[in-house]
Each structure stands twice: as C-alpha cells, then as structure tokens.
Amino acid sequence: MKMTFRWYGESDSISLDSIRQIPGVRGVVTALYDVPVGGVWKESSVAALARLCREKGLEMEVIESVPVHEDIKMGCGRRDEYIANYAENIRILARHGVRCVCYNFMPVFDWLRTDMHRVNADGSNSLAYSAEDFARVDPDNLHLPGWDESYTPSQLKGLLEAYRGISREKLFENLVYFLERIIPVCDETGVKMAIHPDDPPWNVFGIPRTVSSEADLDALFAAVPSKNNGLTLCTGSLGAGRSNDIVGMAAKYAAQGRVHFAHLRNIKYTDDADSFCETGHYTPDGSLDMAEIVFALVRNGFDGYVRPDHGRNIWGEDGKPGYGLYDRALGATYLNGLFEAAEKLIARGADKVGK
C-alpha cells in the first residue's frame, strides 16, 4: 500500500512541504488543470510537475484525473479524436513515472452535493447531500453548489438535453468502446485505469449513471477483461448507495486484482432516504466500518494506492470544501494505523478484525 494525498498543483493552498510532513504519505495525486478537456497534455508540463514532487521527496504515480470528454460519453462528435488524445496522454504520463489514472464516466456532474458547508455538531463543516433539498432543485433553472462557477445555466441546460436520449445501456456501451481503445495502450505502458464510481450512485435529473453497484462493476470487468481495467474503490461514493456491501466489494475486487486505487472516507446517513453528510474518517463518526474495509483490502492482497478522501474543515480552517489540510492529515494517520494493524493481525492468523 502507498499512502498518497490529493494536491491541486502550485495553485493549491496546501503546499508540498506541508504534505510531506504527514506521517506515512509517500506521494501526491495530482493533474494538469490548464488543459481543455479532450486536449493533449504538454509533456514539458508533466515533467515539471513530476520534478516538483520529486524535489520534495514525493512520488507522482497517480493522476486524478485525465477527464473524459462528453463526446466520448455520449458516443458522438469528435469522440475518436478525443480517445486518440487520451491515449497519447497515457503514453506521456507513463514516461514520467505515472502508474495509475483515476477517471470517471459520469455525465455532466462528476459529484453532486446540496451543501458545501454543512455545520456539524462539533463545529466543523463538511459536504452533505440532502434528498429533500435536491427534490426542490428546478432542472430548468439549475443552481447547484460547486457547479455554478463551472457551467452557465444555459450550458447546463444544453448538456442535460443532450443526454436525454441516452440510456444507461448506451452509456455503458460508450464506456466499453472507450476502454477497448485505451486499455491496449495501458497494457503497452503499464498504466492502470481506475474508474471512479458514480457520486452519488444514482441517476440525477434523468441522466443515467453506469458505475453504481457491484453488478455494474462485474459487467465492466467482464466486458474488458484486462487487469489494467480496474477500480478506484471510493467508499463514500459507493457507500452512499445503502444496498452496496462495501466490505464485500473491497474483498472481492482486491482478490481479483482490480482495486488499483482507494479513496477512503466515511459518511453518515442522516435520514431514511438518500441523505448523508461527510464526517471524519474515524469509524464511530459515520455509517461505514473503515476498519473492516481496510482489513478486507489487506486480507485480499491489495497493494495499490490510497488517499484519505474528503475531510471536514476543522480548527478554523477555511479550505477548499472536502480538501482542507488538517482533517485529511488526521485521516491519513488514522488509515495508516488501520493498515498497520490489519497487516499485523493477518500475519498472526486473524481472519477478521475482532479475532
């Protein structure tokens, strides 16, 4: 296991000097953020980014992400050109030490929350999703937290309309089409593709999702069997779907060698519908058993990359929602402890956490 930390490049308010002081963190998860979606990344920029990390003693082996153009998801327009560009990006990244690319195939929204600063009982604030609040959103006049600065209302309306005629089955077909052309490049270069599950794992505004459950993942791995076609096990995203058995999925896909990357975070269910808020990583603070998830990964041979996923803003920090320094640093330390304990328990013959 390699513990990593998300870093948004030189514009990030969190420095590499701060990140490298977190116990056990060996690398950063980053990307280039100034290239239009579908474009080819400048190799000199990739090289410079990798050099910055190395100078601070940190690896840059995971990129999150190389975004997938909407034409590829919809199966229209210039998709073959964009797929060719994507393949070239993988080759460029491989030449500079990248071994894993986290990506998603979510139409329009690659995450969705209704509150970016939910105030928690302990005075911290975190991301949250309220089914009741979402039900009040007018799809014809969309204003969504975190997305108003990314799209104009007319752009959002146009994208939603473009997806109206695309079924879940067609979206899956387009995902397979993409991977059938990208995975051979991964086989050639040794780069692993790690798809991020839908966040949240259900349809939004009538737009289909296609990576929301164990059945979805089984279908994807059967369609494109190469082991370089794998998963970013995001516990918070999959965990929002209450029928998903996260511990079982961690065990199953780790044993198959499909978990290339793990986003480990906890969430707390806040009603009987689909609502949840994001919490600290500590198991008792949320609804997911982080210790059992880590144990399932270790017991089944997981040796990929991990990062502490979304944290709260704590101790007066006014950080990027989900991506402040302090709570994620605490999360990295807690998760490192869980991995160390799991490894030692398993070495002593334990087959479950409580043994």
Write the SSE topology.
Layout: E1 2-6, H1 16-19, E2 25-30, H2 43-55, E3 59-64, H3 70-74, H4 79-94, E4 100-103, E5 115-119, E6 125-129, H5 131-135, H6 153-163, H7 168-189, E7 192-195, H8 214-223, E8 229-234, H9 235-239, H10 246-255, E9 259-264, E10 267-269, E11 276-278, H11 290-299, E12 305-308, H12 326-347
Parallel strand pairs: 1-2, 1-12, 2-3, 3-4, 4-7, 7-8, 8-9, 9-12
Antiparallel strand pairs: 5-6, 6-11, 10-11
Helix pairs in contact: 4-7, 10-11, 11-12
CATH architecture: Alpha-Beta Barrel
Rg on CA atoms, Å: 19 Å
Beta fraction of the residues? 15-25%
CATH class assignment: Alpha Beta
Helix content: 25-40%
Helix and strand pattern: EHEHEHHEEEHHHEHEHHEEEHEH
Mean pLDDT: 94
Count every beta strand, where a strand is a DSSP E run of 2 or more residues: 12
Could you please say which CATH topology applies here?
Answer: TIM Barrel
Tell me about the biggest sheet?
Answer: 8 strands, parallel, barrel
Strand order of the largest sheet: 1-2-3-4-7-8-9-12
Overall tally of domains: 1
Uncertain ranges: none
The general outline is globular
Classification by helices and strands:
alpha/beta
CATH superfamily: Divalent-metal-dependent TIM barrel enzymes
